[in-house]
Structure formats: structure tokens, C-alpha cells
Amino acid sequence: MSNERIRIFLADDNKEFCDTLINYLEKHSDLVRFYVVQNFLLFLAIALVGTITCGIGYIVGVVFWIIEIVKAFKGEKYAIPLLGGWTDKILS
Q: b/e per residue, 50-62, with b = 16+ CB within 10 A?
């Protein structure tokens, strides 16, 4: 397993450290940085939408999160609808 896949997996698993990881990961691949930023946005979206929808947003967010983890572990780029576009804008 490549180091890049491990870094992506850790970014998926440890959302609370995303802001710290962004600084560290500037030296690493674009794919790792993409997943770090997208996971931070996903975490915020889950918190906001889940609160507004009385929990339904939590379920949808976790489904997207699981799909993202599987894709990231395979080394594929997966852009969550809406959040993927914002992630690209932030990184550009």
C-alpha cells in the first residue's frame, strides 16, 4: 500500500485535524490535499445539514463519507456533489 493511500485514509478518518494537516500536506500530492479539504467541508456540511434536518443529514453525510473512504483507499478521486466543486475552487 502506498504512503499516499495511507495519508488519504488518515485524512478521511481524522476530520478534526484537517486544518493542521493542510499545512503539513502542502508538500504532498494534489489528491491527498483534495481529500483533506473535501473532508473538512463534509464535516461542516454534516453538522449543519444534520442539525437542520433533525438527523437525516447525518445519515446522508455518513453514506458519502463511506463512499469517499472506499474511493480514496483505491486511489481514485471522488468529488462529492457540490462539495467537490467547492474543494476544487479552494485548492485552485
A: beeeeeebeeebe
